[in-house]
Write a structure and sequence with these properties.
The longest helix has 17 residues. The chain has 3 helices and 5 strands; from the N terminus they run E-E-E-E-H-H-H-E. It is α+β, with helices and mostly antiparallel strands.
């Protein structure tokens, strides 16, 4: 399960999202796909659901999608923006 964590504020700037955590003093900018992932996990979701939505919206192979989404989420987890519950 993937869910947002912390006090992150976000604002869309074009196709990207700029994010800020006042608590941590961190700023992040995420591209169009990262922005879409952030939107998809507004309510807790799982990796399969996120990848299925991205595959409907973008031209990407399933294995590449999963790998890149996992890498993105791991980075977001390191910044404290998401929590990932692993089985």
């Amino acid at each position: 399960m993937i869910e947002r964590r912390g006090d992150w504020l976000s604002a869309r700037v074009g196709d990207e999202i700029m994010m800020m955590s006042a608590e941590k003093g961190n700023y992040l900018g995420v591209n169009e796909v990262g922005a879409r992932i952030w939107e998809l996990i507004e309510t807790p979701s799982n990796l399969d659901t996120v990848c299925a939505a991205l595959q409907r919206e973008f031209v990407i192979e399933p294995d590449v999608c999963r790998s890149e989404v996992e890498a993105f989420l791991e980075q977001m987890e390191k910044h404290g923006a998401v929590a990932i519950t692993r089985p």
